[in-house]
Amino acid sequence: MRVLGVDPGLTRCGVGVVDGVPGRPLTMVGVGVVRTPADAETGHRLVLIEQGIEEWLDEHRPEAVAVERVFSQHNVRTVMGTAQASAVAILCAARRGLPVHLHTPSEVKAAVTGSGRADKAQVGAMVTRLLRLDAPPKPADAADALALAICHIWRGAATNRLQQAIAAHSPVQAARTAAARTARTQESAT
Question: Which of 18, 45, 161, 174 has the maximal Cβ count within 10 Å?
């Protein structure tokens, strides 16, 4: 599975692409940052982020997009910019019909380091180790984007299997399965 991870931000939007499946070594395909000038109008900055993400989607053709779920912060301006950049990433993926998955920072940290309270240095160190890189990607936004992609590869597959199992055992699905069995039994009896 190829996943584009997006660590949203108005000034620096981290992007990273990882190939892999659970239980196998992962491969970094690409990593970078979409930057916008801090003194530009918000609308123009969002257009630049959209163009940057579209370029990454065109170049790397991911099968899914993992975006950091925006959480409450004390600085309202920061959370607003993060939410706006997040929405742009979700929109770009949805426009292409790609599944989008949101992961909280603590989910990502726990998946990559084993602790939901890990700091940025620990996340960068584990991303470096897991992807067999020579050094942690810089800036931290780039490493965080790779961590999002890793988290989704490891957790997303399990979550998808769980959702499929739940759907297969829902009352509606159980009734359909029973009806299909009855029909097969009646066909074989005739």
Answer: 18
Give the pLDDT score at 22.
Answer: 93
Q: If we measure between CA atoms, which residue out of 140, 93, 92 comes closest to residue 118?
A: 140
* Catalytic status, residue 58: no
150-166: pLDDT as tens digits: 999 999 755 555 455 56
Per DSSP (E only), the strands in the chain are 2-7, 12-19, 27-35, 64-68, 100-103
Active site residue 7: yes
Catalytic residue among 58, 68, 107, 119: 68
Contact call for residues 17 and 62 (beta carbons, < 8 A): yes
Give residue for tokens 């069995």.
Answer: 181
Residues 52 and 9: their CA atoms lie apart, in Å, by 12
Burial class of residue 107, CB neighbours in 10 A (0-12, 13-18, 19+): middle
The residue from 41, 59, 141, 187 that is catalytic is 141
